[in-house]
Amino acid sequence: MEFDALTISRRADGTGILATSFIGDFSGQGTISSASNGISGTFTATNDEGATEYSGTFAGSFFGPAAEELGAVASGSSATGEFFTATLAGDRYPDLAAGVTLAGQTELLISQGPSVSSETGGTLLSFVSGGYNLEYDPATDSYLIYDDDLSPSVVGEELTFGGSERAPGRDTPDFDFYVITNGLEEKEFAVFDGSDAEVTLTYANFGRLITTQGNGIGGIADQHADYFGFGLVTPYHQVPRTGLATYSGSLYGHITGGTELGAEIYGSSAFGFDFAASDFIAILTVNTDNGVGGDLELGEFIFEGQDVPYGNGFFGSIDIGADEGSLFGQFYGDTAQELLAAFSIYDATNDQTYVGITGAVQD
């Protein structure tokens, strides 16, 4: 057996400040006992974005009449004598059958995927505090979007976008729009219609939520955008472990900075995965409107990453030149036919930050 996990540590520096969080990882491998109901093995973990590394052992058991669930405990230490302890619990992830698509959904779809917010300066989010969950109800053709904040003291926001919130007058060739207005605040939700000139998505989709707070005199006091993906996530055990694959797609996002959003960005994406070597490369080509109906290319940004699949997804970063960036994605479909990836880029040449999301299909 093997496992991989993203970890978020609260109060890791001892200050007791809720907003303090450190991203790390937790992975291990072990064996299943042939003589008893037991699992055991070794693990490695990092905290504070890799600043501290721990190693140790774990042990546990299966639960349920057909071993549907498992539980385990882990303990270890760092080279400098710091300790690491964890409890693991989980249930069996069901298979995703071939031929199941978003268009064919008849039951409530609950999904959380890669997301990014301009409000946090481009901090990537997925299964962490502040990320958005999305529920799609095909019976009413409506979307419920809500915060998934890990802090029990914070009440998450819930927004429902359905027929009464549709704003077809704002629709573009690639997005369908919904609007909720509450006083000086407007929530504008745009969902990708599934196809554009570059890509047609079957198993995945993504949306954009723009929050605009008016200042009472016709201007904007604050504005930010959240991009997030959803869909039929490829189960971890169905992500390929051998072979090569390339993906091509489109990207959408914004230039960020200040109290108002900057110009929209768009462009293309290309991914190459070596599943046997557990690594990938991604190239994002970012454009914006040049003001006279054409494209202004802002740059081509190269991400690289390892440890694929990381859960059922992947992480990457920019390690070339003065540019900076990070990218988190997940696979969708029963054999990872599609992917979504949220990204944040600092463009040193233009001194600008871009946030957004890309959807791509296996070539």
TrEMBL record:
Gene3D superfamilies: 2.40.160.90. InterPro entries: OMP/PagP_B-barrel. This is Transferrin-binding protein B C-lobe/N-lobe beta barrel domain-containing protein. It comes from Alteraurantiacibacter aquimixticola.
